[in-house]
């Protein structure tokens, strides 16, 4: 019996090739998208969960409430970790961790830049790192020790055992390899190429490792299983208040497994995009399932005569229901097989867009079962309705074809729902693309065109003025400056200011950017009052000279600010507001000052479109002043684009999924139009004999579908507007959602639908009336 059911099922698939192709392909495409997005969500959710004690590891974070302007999220000072480790019983262990920039590592004549990390031996007691060589308990015990990742060791030593080898770090320190760890998973927010003791940081970065006033480091704690987290947070705040008595500050614990999804350092947490991609997966899968169920129902009604004959031959309702449900499940699982093949082919392109390294082999057992369950449920639901509908027909009526088509309302509702989802995706794609264009074209208030950055290494710093003079000899170069930050990406430093203009009760979180005397000229900034003084706090009797932006002056309420006391210095100038962060952030107060110890980059302004000539000339100067360092550079415009990398990824994925959603919708509409045109073939022939025109018949056949699409557009608009309003809340400055977006998304959906339906309508209208009247 099973063999007969299977044989009949395959015969029906082959007999109705168009419907079978649309059904299987549409569902396969939806399942493929679902597989890829579930794989991405699994990777996001599993961030940092590979550590054995991940559920007990927390990062200490710090909120600073500034002048009623909301919270600023900072990190912690380096001495906090040992203080917590020694003082509180509920804290099993604590460690300070810092990783930023790139550092040169040389072996013999080979010198390569790698990403460093600085920490203490407690790091290996808290986190799980697999040691390939060396011992975790002693790997960082010596101030001259260095631990390499597998890839770094392979790059420097090949297949040679690196243990005990000496490396030149940043042309300053000789470090001995004491360990090699396995490469960190890509879904870890701790990423580094090598690890050295925290005590070496002062010599490499110039930042002291024991400063309670520098809130620039990560502190991680391992709590005991029954630890009281609110009490620990209160203890941390009490401890720091004794050392740094500041108001408006609050330390709190953030679970390690939440850091990536709920990032609080000024970037958008990935959880927002998990929700977005989950919704897209549900949308696409719903559309594919609706297609499958809709066309399965339509296809089954055409088999009424077969059912009548089978019932007259003795088949009972149960057998017929099993047959229809079985056929539906067979097609659903054929779709799943094709979906897996599609997902495998698309995975490399998906990885390019998302920046991940995913493969189908990474799917967990629970996700595999979920996908199988979704497939089975889709096939079951698609088969149940026609199975019960057709098995209830009277045999003689079924053979004569005198059946009431009771599925019209359901088919219409499903098509409306499907095109509603497609229109929502079209609308969202348009808005996201428009917002990204808005971000790229937004006037930040400073010059970001034709700015070249060089990382400021020790060799440059030793002969900086001479190097700047030679750079200025390059004909295309118009200005050279040093700075601590890449404008548009936010400052690296912030300080808490508690006094200004005689007001000792003030409080402000003040981001700081440093630069030299040519900083304003290089970036095209406008000084409104005063000037940019060369004030450096090298001694207690020489205060800082602050240049504040308009927002800082407005928040402090200082009138006639030039020469007024501000924190540990005086105000020497006021600069016109500029957007030094991405437009995710509103304008904030800012101070600019000269402090060479904090500078990280050389910024070069040039006025030529011949980039090869400019780079060649700059590289020549760089090689002269830093022959031991490789030539590295970046363009400010390119760096600025990275601030919108996640948004751009969302835009690319949404465009891809929107295209796929439209294809799935069109497949469903194409199948529905084919069925309805066949049902009205004789009517079309009669109308043509009576003188109906091709355009009139085409209009007759397309108007009903057009009405459905119009209804779906009207439903989609408010839903899409609401979703995009919520997404745009992540930007302080945003593009308006104008009426043109509503019109464009509606027109696109309508044109796509009409074009799809018109194929069958025009073909039927142009056919010979004789053939139409012979139909059936």
Any descriptors?
seven-stranded mixed beta sheet; 776 residues
Helix segment count? 24
Q: Termini separation (Å)?
A: 32 Å
| Backbone structural class | alpha+beta
Low-confidence parts lasting 5 or more residues at pLDDT below 50? 265-269
Backbone shape: elongated
- The percentage of residues in β strands lies in 15-25%
Q: Over the alpha carbons, how many angstroms does the gyration radius reach?
A: 34 Å
Can you summarize the main beta sheet?
Answer: 8 strands, mixed
- Percent helix, as a range, is 40-55%
**Number of E-state strands:** 24
Mean pLDDT level: 81
Detailed description of the structure:
This protein has 776 residues and is an alpha+beta fold. Helices cover 50% and strands 16% of the residues. It has 24 helices and 24 strands. Strands 4, 5, 6, 7, 8, 9, 10 and 11 form an 8-stranded mixed sheet that branches. Helix 8 (271-301) runs antiparallel to helix 13 (408-441) and helix 20 runs parallel beside helix 23 (739-766).
């Amino acid at each position: 019996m099973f063999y007969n059911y299977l044989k009949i099922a395959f015969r029906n698939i082959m007999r109705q090739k168009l419907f079978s192709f649309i059904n299987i392909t549409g569902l396969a495409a939806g399942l493929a998208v679902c597989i890829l997005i579930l794989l991405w969500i699994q990777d996001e959710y599993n961030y940092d969960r590979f550590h054995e004690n991940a559920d007990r590891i927390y990062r200490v974070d710090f909120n600073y409430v500034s002048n009623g302007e909301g919270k600023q999220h900072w990190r912690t000072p380096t001495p906090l970790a040992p203080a917590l480790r020694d003082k509180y019983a509920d804290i099993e262990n604590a460690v300070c961790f810092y990783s930023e920039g790139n550092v040169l590592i040389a072996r013999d004549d080979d010198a390569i830049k790698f990403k460093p990390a600085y920490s203490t031996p407690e790091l290996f007691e808290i986190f799980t790192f697999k040691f390939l060589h060396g011992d975790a308990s002693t790997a960082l015990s010596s101030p001259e020790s260095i631990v390499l990742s597998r890839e770094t060791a392979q790059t420097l030593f090949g297949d040679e055992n690196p243990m005990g080898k000496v490396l030149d770090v940043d042309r300053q320190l000789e470090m001995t390899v004491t360990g090699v760890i396995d490469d960190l998973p890509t879904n870890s927010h701790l990423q580094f190429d090598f690890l050295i003791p925290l005590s070496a940081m002062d010599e490499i970065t110039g930042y002291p490792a024991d400063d309670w006033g520098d809130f620039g480091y990560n502190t991680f704690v391992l709590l005991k299983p029954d630890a009281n987290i609110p009490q620990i947070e209160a203890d941390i705040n009490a401890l720091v208040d004794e050392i740094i008595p500041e108001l408006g500050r609050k330390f709190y614990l953030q679970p390690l497994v939440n850091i990536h999804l709920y990032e609080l350092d000024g970037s958008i947490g990935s959880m927002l995009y998990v929700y977005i991609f989950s919704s897209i997966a549900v949308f696409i899968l719903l559309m594919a399932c609706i297609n499958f169920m809709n066309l399965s129902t339509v296809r089954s009604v055409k088999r009424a005569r077969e059912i009548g004959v089978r019932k007259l031959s003795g088949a009972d309702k149960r057998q017929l229901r099993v047959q229809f449900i079985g056929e539906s499940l067979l097609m659903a699982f054929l779709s799943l097989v094709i979906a897996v093949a599609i997902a495998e082919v698309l995975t490399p392109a998906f990885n390019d867009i998302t920046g991940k390294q995913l493969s189908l082999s990474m799917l967990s057992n629970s996700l595999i079962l979920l996908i199988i369950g979704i497939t089975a449920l889709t096939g079951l639901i698609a088969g149940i309705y026609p199975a019960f509908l057709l098995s209830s027909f009277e045999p003689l009526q079924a053979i004569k074809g005198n059946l009431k088509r009771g599925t019209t309302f359901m088919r219409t509702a499903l098509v409306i729902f499907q095109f509603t989802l497609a229109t929502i995706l079209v609308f969202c794609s348009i808005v996201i693309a428009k917002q990204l264009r808005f971000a790229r074209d937004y006037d930040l208030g400073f010059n970001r065109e034709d700015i070249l950055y060089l990382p400021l290494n020790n060799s440059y710093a030793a002969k900086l003025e001479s190097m700047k003079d030679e750079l200025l000899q390059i004909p295309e170069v118009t200005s050279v400056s040093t700075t601590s930050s890449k404008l548009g990406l936010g400052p690296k430093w912030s300080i808490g200011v508690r006094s200004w203009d005689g007001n000792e009760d003030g409080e402000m979180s003040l981001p700081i950017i440093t630069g030299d005397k040519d900083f304003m000229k290089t970036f095209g900034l406008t000084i409104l009052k005063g000037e940019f003084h060369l004030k450096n706090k090298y001694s207690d009797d020489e205060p800082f000279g602050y240049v504040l932006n308009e927002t800082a002056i407005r928040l402090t309420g200082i009138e006639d600010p030039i020469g007024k006391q501000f924190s540990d210095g005086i105000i020497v100038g006021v600069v016109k507001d500029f957007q030094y962060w991405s437009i995710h952030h509103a304008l904030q107060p800012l101070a600019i000052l000269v402090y060479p110890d904090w500078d990280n980059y050389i910024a070069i302004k040039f006025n030529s479109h011949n980039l090869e000539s400019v780079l060649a000339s700059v590289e020549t100067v760089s090689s002269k002043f830093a022959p031991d360092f490789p030539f590295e550079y970046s363009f400010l415009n390119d760096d600025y684009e990275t601030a919108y990398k996640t948004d751009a990824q969302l835009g690319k994925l949404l465009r891809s999924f929107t295209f796929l959603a439209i294809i799935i919708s069109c497949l469903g509409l194409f199948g529905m139009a084919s069925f309805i045109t066949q049902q009205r073939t004789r009517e079309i022939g009669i109308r043509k004999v009576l003188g109906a025109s091709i355009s009139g018949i085409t209009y007759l056949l397309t108007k009903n579908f057009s009405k459905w699409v119009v209804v779906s557009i009207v439903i989609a608009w408010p839903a899409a507007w609401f979703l995009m309003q919520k997404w745009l809340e992540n930007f302080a400055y945003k593009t308006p959602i104008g009426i043109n977006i509503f019109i464009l998304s509606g027109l696109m959906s309508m044109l796509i639908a009409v074009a799809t339906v018109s194929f069958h309508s025009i073909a039927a209208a142009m056919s010979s009336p004789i053939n139409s009247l012979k139909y059936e």
